[in-house]
Backbone:
């Protein structure tokens, strides 16, 4: 893997981490159960994407 490709993956990992954190934060602050569940599903999705990208490194 080239250094430039590694930088792209590291950047994507950072983005996924931010999105994961935001989704978890939103889920904790939401009062509506359906919206909270959706935010948790999005957090799970971003966790899976993070894990997949991390395995590339």
Residues:
């Amino acid at each position: 893997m080239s250094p430039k490709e590694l930088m792209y993956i590291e950047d994507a990992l950072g983005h996924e981490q931010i999105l994961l954190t935001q989704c978890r934060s939103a889920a904790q602050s939401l009062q509506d159960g359906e919206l909270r569940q959706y935010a948790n599903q999005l957090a799970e999705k971003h966790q899976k994407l993070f894990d997949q990208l991390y395995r590339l490194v």
User: Anything to note?
Assistant: The chain has one domain: 17-56. The radius of gyration is 14 Å. The chain has a mean pLDDT of 97. Helices lie at 3-29, 33-56.
